[in-house]
Amino acid sequence: MIVPMKKLSLFVLDKQKEDALTKIRDLGLVHIERKTVSSTTISDLNDRKNRVDLALNILKNFTPQKGEKLLPVANAPSVDKDLINRIIKLSETRKALGDEIFNNTRDISRFDKWGNFNPKDIKRLNEHNVTFLLYEISFTEYESLKEERVIVLGKDKKKKKVRLVAFDKLQCGEPYQTPDKSIPEIEALSNEKRAEIAVIETELKSFYKFIPEIEKRKKWLDAEIEFESARVGMEPVFLGDDAGAARYAISLFSGYVPANSVGVLRRAASENGWALYADDPAEDDFEVPTKLKNNKFVSLLYPLTDFLEIVPGYREVDITGAFLVFFCVFFGMIFSDAAYGLVLAAVAIIGMVKTAGRVPAFFKMLLLLAICNIGWGVLTCTWLGLDVGLLPDFLRNISLPLISNVEAAKGPLEKAVVDQNLMILCFSLALLHLGFARLRSFLACLLKKNLKFFSELGQLSMLLGMFNVVLFLVVSNSYRKIPLLPISLYLLIGGFALVFIFGNYEGSVIKSILSSFANFISTVLGITNVFSDIMSYIRLWAVGLAGASVASTVNSMAGPMMGHFLMFAAIVLLIVGHGFNMALNTLSVIVHGVRLNTLEFSSHIGLTWSGIAYKPFAKRLK
User: CA 543, CA 536: separation in Å to the nearest integer?
Assistant: First the structure.
């Protein structure tokens, strides 16, 4: 459920606005209205925060190994400034040393082919008017040389180059610029730089233990930036025209607050002498934040939606309950392996035990998804991708024959029937999922007495008709005959007619029809969209089948290694292979399982996920 919000305007004396902001922050109820503000203080705080972020990123790249000897940190520098500056300075020095080593290595690679020589000897010869130049020229240029005094040092036939020493400047090419130091000297210098880098890295690792304190500093800076932005964003309102009246200046603080919390703010305003005005947000106000309130079961989805940062708009519908139910089904079908579900359940239970007393919602959600995964794996008799013949009888007996691998293993005909049953299930889920969306939209329009409910009824009609068309085109074959029912054509034609007449209804049927004519192509394509949306659900079967194939392949690779000296390698292969498959399944769930809810389902219920999450102005230092 989306919690009703009120638009809040709070008037306080300008000289008391910092005290008022502190008290409002302590209440932790008001979502500040977004404004673009700037000040010297905000810029300074942002610069400090950026340096803290940089220091954190640097330290996270230097995790000390267990048992590694680190430098003692006596009189630890201040986290606020000294430590941050020290970390950044060390990183910059390390980078500069690395650049020097890179340049030295490049010089060595350039001059190594000339052999080991001392550049100082060449400079000394040049100082005594003895020309000594190094050239690398092509064979053609070398053959064109006539009486020039040169000594050939080597020939590179592959690159068709000639290296030589000339005692006079040649007309072809430019001489090599010799380095200031010899190759051994450059190598020695690089080794010194590497030693300095090792010392710097050891020092950075010794600062790794300060990461929690640095993160606290970052949170403090975030709070200060938020407070300063709110202070600067308060609009001053002056009473009177004379200069002396400036002391009676009033500042305006605006934001949004849950309707059921307005009373708390009214009491605070009365106690502190503030003037408060709260009213319903305007219809054209698109900055109203969304606060969701659901029961404990439905709230299990919040870790996923928070991770994806998706929020319904304030005036949209909350589909969290339907999202969770169908996502659990999609998760089980995509992971599709009971053994994987047991692994996920074990991870969830271990996490819940270790965080007993304050269990994160993530572990509860993971346990729910694991149970759904186990349930689907039991029904299809899918256990770690193993051949059903290797499984105990009781596991095969508790599977559901219509979709079970036990039935599919009997022969090609049985497998084809099972595959078709799974496809029918996917399309049935599509009808149920999308039909629920359209039915909800239909009831919403009906309750508002908006004739657009005829359009929603038409969309529902097209869904039913297209469902039969999809079954006829995709599933119907020699094993299972599914006829194209005449009623499906009536549903499609009738549904399209209702959508065409009422799809753009805004108080006038004539205007709605004219608008449909103006957008005739997009209106006609609506039928195609219904077909593609239903077809999209076949991904549940296809992705699950792909995961099962990967699991089976891993087993077939490890099977021949079992029972002899390669058994350890087989165990490693099984762990790595199935771990990789679980990682792929996790990605598939996010890509496909989430997509069916946030795209196909949401488009049919009119949800754009354009909301702004309710984030009250409050202390967040913990």
Answer: 12
pLDDT digits (tens, 9 = 90+) for 331-386: 999 998 999 999 999 999 999 999 887 889 999 999 999 999 999 999 999 999 88
pTM: 0.80
Phi-psi region of 7 (alpha: psi -120 to 50; beta: other; left: phi over 0): beta
Residue 200 in domain: no
Structural domain range at position 166 = 117-181
The torsion of the CA quartet 65, 67, 70, 73, rounded to 10 degrees, works out to 110
Helix or strand (DSSP H, E) at 122: helix 119-127
Q: Are 123 and 101 in contact (CB under 8 A)?
A: no
In a domain, 111, yes or no: no
The per-residue DSSP string of 445-486 comes to: HHHTT-TTHHHHHHHHHHHHHHHHHHIIIII-SSSS-----H
Mapping DSSP to helix (H, G, I), strand (E, B) and coil, where does residue 175 land? coil
Q: Please tell me the distance from the alpha carbon of residue 107 to that of residue 370, in angstroms, as a whole number.
A: 58
Say which DSSP state 114 is in.
G
10-to-123, 227, 237, 278 alpha-carbon distances in Å:
80, 16, 12, 9
In whole angstroms, what is the distance from residue 383 CA to residue 398 CA? 13
DSSP assignment of 16-78 equals GHHHHHHHHHHHT--EEPP-----HHHHHHHHHHHHHHHHHHHHTT-PPPTT-------SPPP
Token code pair at residue 19: 């005290």
Rounded Cα distance, 594 and 543, in Å = 14
- The average confidence (pLDDT) of the chain is 85
Rounded mean pLDDT, 138-152: 69
Indicate whether 465 belongs to any domain: yes
Give dist(CA 264, CA 278) in Å, integer: 12
Burial class (CB in 10 A: 0-12, 13-18, 19+), 157: exposed
Alpha helices, DSSP H, located in 336-411: 338-354, 361-380, 393-397, 405-408
Give the mean model confidence (pLDDT) for residues 451-469: 92
Domain total of the chain: 2
How far apart CA 341 and CA 373 sit, in angstroms, is 5
pLDDT in tens, 78-107: 566 688 888 999 999 999 999 989 988 887
Are 509 and 501 in contact, with CB atoms under 8 Å apart? Answer: yes
DSSP labels for 261-298? GHHHHHHHHHHHT-EEEEEPPPTT----EE-B---TTG
What's the angle, vertex CA 451, arms to CA 446 and CA 455, rounded to 5? 90
In-domain check, residue 549: yes
CB 484 within 8 A of CB 528: no
Place of tokens 């050891």: 202
pLDDT value, residue 251: 84
Q: What is the pairing mode between strands 5-13 and 250-258? A: antiparallel
Residue that is last in its domain, among 164, 181, 198: 181
Of 132, 148, 181, the domain-final residue: 181
Query: What is the model's pLDDT at position 504?
Result: 82
